[in-house]
Amino acid sequence: MSSSSRSPGTGQGSGQGAGRASSPPGRLLRLCGVPGYEQHRMNDVLLLRPEPREIQATHNENAHVVFFPGDIQNFHQEMAMQPDASPWLSFSLERVALSLGVRFPGRHVWLVRPSRLHLQKFSCYTNFVSCDMFGAPKHSPDYGAVRHLRALLGHAMERSAVAEPLPPLGGASVPSPLPTGFSLILVGFSKGCVVLNQMVHELASARTDPELRQFLDSISDMYWLDGGHPGTGDTWVTDKQALAELASSGVAVHAHVTPYEVRDPARAWVGREHRCFVKTLEELGARITQKLHFEDEPACIANHFRVIEDF
């Protein structure tokens, strides 16, 4: 496939109506092999452009949302060909993009596919965080997730001909200004939350770089949606020093969970870490909201996915 193309997953795939996605022509754009700050760090990216009338209503064409999907989520056409994935076609990247477009009108919506899907199902965000073959992370303070996202988004904006792309990273002591009104919302779902966690671990070191500090200051909100991964810890950030950096940043933190993750007795640490994350941020004076979704329903993977539509 060419590096830039109209997404073939829109309205295609299994051929069943329940799995179809629909969008006005030209709004969805699939970008393949977009590089980050190192040429070998590349991710496929899906862009949903905002409606012109929505931009006119907000008077800002430089508002953006970046979404990091979880396990098994992929482009619509690829999911339709995988028996384990096809039951979840309504949560393909294209369908999620359209849902987020409704949730955040007037914003460019970017979905970042992990660089590798082990066995076609386990998302591995190795360009953002060190992880094992199943995607369980090993966090560090200097892996480069912030720098990779900054460069990846800039290159994707250039390739998709966004009116005012981010200026390239140049390592200048006085960075080029960001586009007028540039603002960013980050959303991680399930395994995708490992990217947000890694960025939190990097905040202290990234803020010493003028270009990265400027980029971080543009982030208004971060959404954790039912974070989870196959490891035995570090599902939520619990390091107080890292959380103090997040609290002092002024970013609005939103923690949305379901019983599937935080009430699983076989993975009790997930609930404990979530409670520690929320409690510590509250004590530090962070701007944080939290919600337990589907509290009175049985814990199930269907509701785990539904939080994408319900948050």
Automatic annotation (TrEMBL):
Region (Disordered): 1-26
A GO cellular-component term linked to this record: mitochondrion
UniProt xrefs under InterPro entries: C2orf69_mit
PANTHER family named among the record's database cross-references: MITOCHONDRIAL PROTEIN C2ORF69, UPF0565 PROTEIN C2ORF69
Protein name per its UniProtKB record: Uncharacterized protein
Provenance organism: Hemibagrus wyckioides
